[in-house]
Amino acid sequence: MSESEPPPYQIQTQSQDHDSLTLTLPLLSHRQRSVNSTSQVAIVGANACPIESLDYEIAENDFFKQDWRTRGKIQIFQYIFMKWLLCFLIGGFVSLVGFFNNIAVETIAGVKFAFTSNMMSDRRHGMALLVFSVSNLLLTLFAAILTAFISPAAAGSGIPEVKAYLNGVDAPDIFSPRTLIVKIVGSISAVSSSLVVGKAGPMVHIGSSIASLFGQGGSRKYGLTWKWLRFFKNDRDRRDLVTCGSAAGIAAAFRAPVGGVLFALEEMASWWRSALLWRSFFTTAVVAIILRALIDVCFSDKCGLFGKGGLIMFDAYSANVSYHLADVPPVLVLGVIGGILGSLYNFLLIRILRVYNFIYEKGIIYQICIACTISILTSFLLFGLPWLASCQPCPSDAPEACPTVGGSGNYKRFQCPPGHYNDLASLIFNTNDDAIRNLFTKDAMSEFQLTTMLIFFVTCFSLGILSYGIVAPAGLFVPVIVTGASYGRFVGMLLGSHTNLSHSLYAVLGAASFLGGSMRMTVSLCVIILELTNNLLLLPLIMIVLLISKTVADAFNGNIYDLIMAVKGFPYLETHAEPYMRQMTVADVVSGPLQLCHGIEKVGNIVHILKTTRHHGFPVIDASPDSESSVLYGLILRAHLIALLKKKAFLSTPMRLGVDDAFRHFSADDFAKRGLGNVDKIEDIELTDEEMEMFLDLHPFTNASPYTVVESMSLAKALVLFREVGLRHLLVIPKITSRAPVVGILTRHDFMPEHILGGSGGGLIQLLHMGLTLETETLAGED
């Protein structure tokens, strides 16, 4: 039977989980989307990859129930104990990686700046430029080649990919050991190359990768497996560990354990519960304790060759803060400016990503050329701009050596004569962490000039946008902080004696406003900044700035990570339904064909279904004893069907198989979820003609209690159910029992606005938009 001629058990009604169908990339294609083709391929890191959905729902079949009934108290205790043990291991490993990254960046950058500064002191300016630019180029080239050829999934910050995973989107290689290694090494190289990129975003990805590897018991591909870790055989448990890993990443990047938990809650996780709160808090506490034990190395000025390191950035501002009611209006203005600039930053960044991706389609060589071009541009700007600043005499009461040569500090000499310093070089010829520390410092009220702050702000704003899209690990947190701190200090200097607040406090508030305007987080950012600055007195001002900047920026566009997910093509399910979804039923969006399996099915039919479709869930029907019509028995997953075929426990006659008989042929490990991207394929299974005529009893392995909705349910209500429960398939059943037992299956792609607006319901949606404007505005307010 050809693929165009459906077998008798095929019903032309609904689309199932099409995980690798028509290529539709928002960044790659400007063509009109066709029905059922939204977001089947997404840009993961730097490359376009087919994506799938995750099975967060537990398949409660007879085999699963019997497996749990056979577990004793010791096994249950071991299961719970392993969760806490893995949280401890995740916290320990992430903290060690964070400290190692900090040491490596400070050392590599320190060698580069030491050589350059010494040559500048010797008046060998041309050689200094050559050493500075070539070292930056080599570091960037190394990161780009490593990422492009070994693991393209490691490009970017990784936060959009992790956030999409926690929402239920499975992308290949995002948590593989190869990606983890490239992310660590590439992040160190990229940050050390003076690019305006950060290491906080990559740390979130690194923490999530470590958690994922522990959750799946290691990597079979690379021979790194631990049998004693293979307790978490489903996506639900691994999702919780990845959430803890993302919280640990922020905690390790900023030494902000509480901020890490709140970041995972506010920004990353789509599902949250009290048990997960406890475990993520425990994970970040482990990070904080281990970093506290290691931070003494930094306090003794041995945290790398160059400076004290970003891990003690929180000590930068610890002065007593006193402010009055008259100081509030400038703070409000600062929040408005942060919202406008943050939304502009997001708008320009997305446009640059689209341009880069258009160029990246031409091949890897173009990806590397873009990275090298940005590196050369950055080097020439960072070396040339300080020449525009005038030399300042060293203050007599300077809290540190002035001028500074060959190390981090507030008073870089650069091209100035002895006893003078270049204030712009003090910001540029430092790592980003040390630049932030210099902007936050309370002892440098008159250190910087207005023109210096303006030049530094424009430079960071522009280079931050240009640098993020290169094929290398690159975060957004630190560039946004340093950009916001520069314009915040600029505003403070403009106000001068008209305010009681110090310039450094305005730098902190500027960083908060720009973070709120770009990333749109409030609670987590507030706590992270408080833990960074180690000053609780800043709380009221930071809260006001974050609320205002987020409110203003929301009027223009969304937060930066959601925008990046959208242009990358991830089918992310939002927390709220679009107003027009209330005017539609689930029957309006289902389409065919739908493949069905019988409770006892012929092997040849199963092979035909698996080979001719890419669906990942199939309804199982049985004949009704009271009538000639069929009844719905449940839902079976593609992975389980392949596992049954691979085991070849076939029946010569169509007979019902008991649960005890199933346990003799199969074990729970046969149906355990494999690592990300590692799935068995039907093409790899070889069957004889005789075996194709045999039978399989699907009843013990079918989820007999799948979530179902009636076809008249509103699409908005179905979306809430689908997202809150974390489903991959939602069965649609008929309202009239005399019809077929299943109308169709809803997957996450059916809820995407691109699918609904671009499909057969597009005309209906346009009418709804024209005729129900007032109603949709009211509903949007209710949401």
Automatic annotation (TrEMBL):
A Pfam cross-reference name: Voltage_CLC
Membrane topology category: Multi-pass membrane protein
UniProt keyword list: CBS domain, Chloride, Chloride channel, Ion channel, Ion transport, Membrane, Repeat, Transmembrane, Transmembrane helix, Transport, Voltage-gated channel
Chief place where the protein resides: membrane
Segments crossing the lipid bilayer: 81-105, 125-150, 241-264, 276-294, 331-353, 365-389, 454-484, 505-530, 536-556
Presence of the UniProt keyword Membrane in the record: yes
CBS domain location: 701-761
InterPro entries in UniProt: CBS_dom (IPR000644), CBS_dom_sf (IPR046342), Cl-channel/antiporter (IPR051280), Cl-channel_core (IPR014743), Cl_channel_pln (IPR002251), ClC (IPR001807)
Location(s), subcellular: Membrane
Record has Repeat as a keyword: yes
Family assignment from sequence similarity: Belongs to the chloride channel (TC 2.A.49) family.
Name this polypeptide is given: Chloride channel protein
